[in-house]
C-alpha cells in the first residue's frame, strides 16, 4: 500500500495523540477516586481501566505503524511488515462493553437490574465488534466489508434502543442535578459510536482505496475513540462526584 508523507504523518501523530490522551485520562480518573464515595468507586475504576486498555493498544498500534512503514526524506516506503489492525479490535472487544458497564454502574440501579443490563448490553457490544472484524480484515473495500458491517449494525441498533428507551425510566428517577449529565453521557456514547460505522463505510461509499482509505479509517477511528472513552469518561466521573456530594448533603 502506497502512502504519501502527509498521510503517514497524520496517522502517526493521531496514534501519538491517542497514547498521551488515554494514559493522562487514566491517571486523572484513578487519582480522583478519593473524590467519590465507595458506592461509585467501581464505576470510576472501570472508567480508568477503559482508557488504560486503550492507551496500551494505541502504543502497540503506534509501534506496528512504525514497523510497517519508514519515512526518509519525505518518502514513505512499505517495509513488507503488515500493519496489525487486530490491536484495535482487541481493544474494542474489551473496552466497548466496559463503556456501557460504566454507565450502568454509575446509575445506582438494583443489583439484579445492574447484572441483567450489563450482560445484555455488554454481550451486544461484544457481538457488534466481533461481526465488524471480518469485514475490516477482508483485504479490500468490497461487498465483504459491506456485509459484515451491516450485520454489526444489528446489535448496535439494539444498544441504541436500550440506551434511549430501556434506560429512560431509570434516568427519570435520578436526582435532578445528575439527570442532565446522564442524558449527555448516553448522547455522547451513541453519537461517538455512530461515527464508527461512518468511518467503516466511508471508503466503500467514497470509493477510496490504498493510502486514502487507510488514513481515513485510522484517523477517523482515533477521533471516535477519544470522544467515546475520554470525553465520555469525564462525564461519568462528574456524575460519580456529583452523586457522592448529593449523598453527603
Automatic annotation (TrEMBL):
Transmembrane regions: 12-33, 40-59, 89-106, 118-134, 146-167, 187-207, 219-241
GO BP terms in the entry: phototransduction
Entry annotated with the keyword Cell inner membrane: no
One function term, GO molecular function aspect: photoreceptor activity
Tree of life domain: Bacteria
UniProtKB keywords: Chromophore, Membrane, Photoreceptor protein, Receptor, Retinal protein, Sensory transduction, Transmembrane, Transmembrane helix
Compartments, as annotated in UniProt: Membrane
Membrane topology, as annotated: Multi-pass membrane protein
GO cellular component: membrane
Alphabetical list of PROSITE patterns matching this protein: BACTERIAL_OPSIN_1
CDD domains from the UniProt entry: 7tm_Proteorhodopsin
Protein family according to the UniProt entry: Belongs to the archaeal/bacterial/fungal opsin family.
Database matches in PANTHER family: BACTERIORHODOPSIN _OPSIN, NOPA (EUROFUNG), PTHR28286
Protein name: Rhodopsin
Organism this protein belongs to: Thiomicrospira cyclica (strain DSM 14477 / JCM 11371 / ALM1) (Thioalkalimicrobium cyclicum)
Amino acid at each position: 500500500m502506497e502512502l504519501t508523507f502527509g498521510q503517514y504523518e497524520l496517522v502517526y501523530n493521531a496514534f501519538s495523540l491517542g497514547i498521551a490522551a488515554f494514559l493522562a485520562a487514566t491517571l486523572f480518573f484513578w487519582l480522583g477516586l478519593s473524590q467519590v464515595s465507595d458506592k461509585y468507586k467501581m464505576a470510576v475504576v472501570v472508567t480508568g481501566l477503559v482508557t488504560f486498555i486503550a492507551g496500551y493498544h494505541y502504543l502497540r498500534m503506534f509501534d506496528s505503524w512504525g514497523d510497517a512503514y519508514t519515512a526518509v526524506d519525505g518518502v514513505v516506503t512499505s517495509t513488507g511488515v503488515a500493519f496489525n489492525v487486530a490491536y484495535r479490535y482487541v481493544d474494542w472487544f474489551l473496552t466497548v462493553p466496559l463503556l456501557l458497564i460504566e454507565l450502568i454502574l454509575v446509575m445506582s440501579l438494583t443489583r439484579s437490574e445492574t447484572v441483567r443490563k450489563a450482560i445484555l448490553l455488554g454481550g451486544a457490544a461484544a457481538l457488534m465488534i466481533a461481526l465488524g472484524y471480518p469485514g475490516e480484515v477482508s483485504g479490500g473495500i468490497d461487498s465483504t466489508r459491506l456485509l459484515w458491517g451491516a450485520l454489526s449494525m444489528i446489535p448496535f441498533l439494539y444498544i441504541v434502543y436500550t440506551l434511549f428507551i430501556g434506560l429512560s425510566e431509570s434516568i427519570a428517577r435520578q436526582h435532578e442535578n445528575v439527570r442532565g449529565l446522564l442524558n449527555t453521557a448516553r448522547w455522547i456514547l451513541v453519537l461517538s459510536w455512530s461515527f464508527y460505522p461512518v468511518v467503516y463505510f466511508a471508503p466503500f461509499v467514497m470509493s477510496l482505496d490504498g493510502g486514502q482509505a487507510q488514513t481515513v479509517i485510522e484517523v477517523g477511528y482515533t477521533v471516535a475513540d477519544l470522544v467515546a472513552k475520554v470525553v465520555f469518561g469525564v462525564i461519568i466521573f462528574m456524575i460519580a462526584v456529583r452523586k457522592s456530594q448529593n449523598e453527603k448533603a
